[in-house]
Amino acid sequence: MIFAHDIPDGAKLYFGKKAKIKREIEHIASEVFENEEFEEIVSPYFSYHQLEALSEKELIRFVDKENRTLALRGDSSVDVIRLVIKRLKSEAKKWFYIQPVFRAPSTEINQIGAEWLKGDLIKVLKTNINILKRLNKNYPLILSHIKIPRIASKLSGVSVEDIKKMRIDKFDSLLKELLMFDKNSNPDDFPKEIRNYLKDLLKIAKSIDYKVIFAPLYVANLRYYNGIFYRIINNNEIIAKGGEYKVEGIKSVGFSIYTDNLLKDMNG
Predict the structure, then answer these.
(1) Helix (H) and strand (E) counts for the chain?
(2) Rounded to whole angstroms, how far apart are CA atoms 234 and 232?
(3) Shortest CA distance to 113 belongs to which of 145, 76, 58?
(4) Which residue range is the domain that position 33 belongs to?
(5) What is the pLDDT, as a whole number, of residue 215?
(6) Is 149 part of any domain?
């Protein structure tokens, strides 16, 4: 029996102290974005193009009145960039949003996000860090590059799946050295095919005042990130993630803060 006061698994309910903290998080994020001249956007809950960002099994899908397939918004990044380019035709390049996304079967994920057309990853990462610092939070930042594990797989002969599952018994010397990569490593000691990507990771780390962990072999199931990407983690939960991607052929950068995971830490 389903009672009138029941809520589906994965749906969110906020009240009292938790609702207040959520509002404060969003208010501080808004202040940071506005101070850094980001424009706000609230994109539609429904979308025709979510398969560009997520797999079909992750989406809550149905049809419109003309029997065209659409989905509840499962990701904001691609939709926001496309709307700005194609519909708004705005000259503004920096946009932020505070809104939920939805994943099958009934999961609501509240996010604070930013997208920057033709933007700079270091600058947008600093915006992300600035929000967390305003909240007195300093979580580890993990830097990766989408191309390194694929190239390392070809060079070593170890499958991407084995790298993803960290089957270290199959790793050769190259993969083991990449596992140990840190701020003191010399990219020139690595094969030329991945050398510049490692230099890019070090450049990011040296440009920010933040605790950085390198994970060059991390294999991400991301449909649109195509370069450097990062995760900010607390107790194995993602607080934020962001990176480089292309939409409509335009290189952009962005990030999302996972409000509910941040709220768990702040609510105690």
Answers:
(1) 8, 11
(2) 7
(3) 76
(4) 1-137
(5) 97
(6) no
> Quick one: residue 147, left, alpha or beta (phi over 0 = left, psi -120 to 50 = alpha)?
alpha
**CA 75 to chain centroid:** 10
- Count of structural domains within the chain: 1
- Residue 155 falls inside a structural domain: no
* CATH number of the domain within which 82 lies: 3.30.930.10
Assess if residue 9 is contained within a domain: yes
Judge whether 25 lies within some domain. yes
Q: Which two tokens stand for residue 10?
A: 């994965």
| CB-count burial class (<10 Å; 0-12, 13-18, 19+) for 169 | exposed
Q: Which of 138, 113, 103 is nearest to 26 (CA)?
A: 113
pLDDT tens by residue, 5-20: 678 888 899 999 999 9
Reference 234, options 254, 260, 209; nearest CA is 260
